[in-house]
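User: Could you go from structure to sequence for me? I need the amino acid at each position, not a summary. Structure tokens:
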């Protein structure tokens, strides 16, 4: 059985919980940012349309900053203002609008879930966090909680990166904040704290606090509306707890939420001692040979060959220049030879390795891959017949290329 959580890590005083809720909501009403999805959620009378607006924003905001998302969100809602409109769109259209936003599987899963709502759920969104998570592909615990609380008024908490940071500081939780045991306790805490009358506003307020005040570095503690409830803030002001623990302090060495003994409080860090995370895994290093094949089109404009990636895996379904993963340590001449062999299938003619013009290298960092593209160019004379048995491919002008569903990495290339 898991070790019991010491009282000092919990919100055990009902009066304190009520005060925290009130202070946070009053601050949110006064200081919240004007964001398009909030405007839609606040003004849309239909709960399902409201849920769709919140759902799109939450999916886009996963792993992506607010400033980047706003333009994508506005274009998306203009093109597909309802869940039914999105269900009728093609994956190609979704990928084209999503291009540059990253983590492309998010858009694909969003559309798949929209189609399921229309075809299997009679166009009605599930209305509880449990059903949203159970019935909609790609909707996890956090997204389900956000939709259910903001759109349907369910008193359920949410835990995202901002909430983790706020709660860990409020209650001096210094164990690895990415561990399942700590995450479970944080969900318990979020569900206990959420305001029963304004759950959606409370959850947004908690996230807003983490995004604008309780930030990772240099938090604005003096502006924090709940600093009087923050254990990390008190510890910063008054130093370490007394050597003799009181009834609310942890036992020695067996608290599942305290920092490990090997990582004591660093007074120079103050509240940024929390949260603590496990060391990040180093991204895998990969190299890929990429060739920009070009020809003169029938109107004299340069055209470039792009091919479609497989429907699963990294950058699924997006378009790219013909590319080939390279083994580590491959010499340049060998790189040219394996790329020339690969290009023969696309051009239907022999490709001489020496005819490939080396352009340079492009580095692109995915979340888990440090990718280097070794870029070559090859001009072609005459018509090239593309083999329909291969992956989908087409010739595009530069303008058509930028309007296609291509990744940021290919735009760099």
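Assistant: Here is the amino acid at each position, in order:
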């Amino acid at each position: 059985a898991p070790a019991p959580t010491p009282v000092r890590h919990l919100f055990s005083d009902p009066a304190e919980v009520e005060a925290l809720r009130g202070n946070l909501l009053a601050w949110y009403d006064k200081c919240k940012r004007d964001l398009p999805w909030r405007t839609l959620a606040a003004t849309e009378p239909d709960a399902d349309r409201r849920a769709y607006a919140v759902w799109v924003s939450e999916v886009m905001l996963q792993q992506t900053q607010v400033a980047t998302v706003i333009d994508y969100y506005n274009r998306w809602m203009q093109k597909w203002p309802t869940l039914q409109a999105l269900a009728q769109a093609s994956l190609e259209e979704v990928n084209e609008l999503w291009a540059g936003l990253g983590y492309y599987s998010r858009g694909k899963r969003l559309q798949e879930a929209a189609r399921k709502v229309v075809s299997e759920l009679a166009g009605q969104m599930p209305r509880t966090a449990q059903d949203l998570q159970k019935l909609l592909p790609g909707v996890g615990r956090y997204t389900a909680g956000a939709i259910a609380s903001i759109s349907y008024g369910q008193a359920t908490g949410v835990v995202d990166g901002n909430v983790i940071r706020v709660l860990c500081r409020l209650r001096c939780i210094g164990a690895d904040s990415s561990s399942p045991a700590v995450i479970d306790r944080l969900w318990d805490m979020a569900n206990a704290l959420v305001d029963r009358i304004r759950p959606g506003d409370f959850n947004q307020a908690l996230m807003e606090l983490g995004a604008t005040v309780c930030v990772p570095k240099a938090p604005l503690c003096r502006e924090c509306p709940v600093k009087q409830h923050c254990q990390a803030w008190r510890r910063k002001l008054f130093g370490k707890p007394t050597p003799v623990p009181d009834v609310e302090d942890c036992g020695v060495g067996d608290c599942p939420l305290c920092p490990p003994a090997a990582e004591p409080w660093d007074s120079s860090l103050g509240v940024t001692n929390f949260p603590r995370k496990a060391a990040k895994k180093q991204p895998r290093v990969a190299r890929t040979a990429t060739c920009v094949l070009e020809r003169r089109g029938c109107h004299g404009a340069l055209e470039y060959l792009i091919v479609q990636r497989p429907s699963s895996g990294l950058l699924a379904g997006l378009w790219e220049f013909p590319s080939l993963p390279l083994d580590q340590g491959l010499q340049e001449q060998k790189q040219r030879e394996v790329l020339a062999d690969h290009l023969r299938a696309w051009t239907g003619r022999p490709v001489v390795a020496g005819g490939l013009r080396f352009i340079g290298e492009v580095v692109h960092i995915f979340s888990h891959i440090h990718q280097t593209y070794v870029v070559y160019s090859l001009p072609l004379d005459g018509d090239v017949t593309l083999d329909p048995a291969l992956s989908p491919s087409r010739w595009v002008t530069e303008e058509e290329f930028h309007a296609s569903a291509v990744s940021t990495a290919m735009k760099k290339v």
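One structural detail worth keeping in mind: The beta strands are 284-296, 302-308, 319-320, 323-326, 357-365, 369-379, 393-396.
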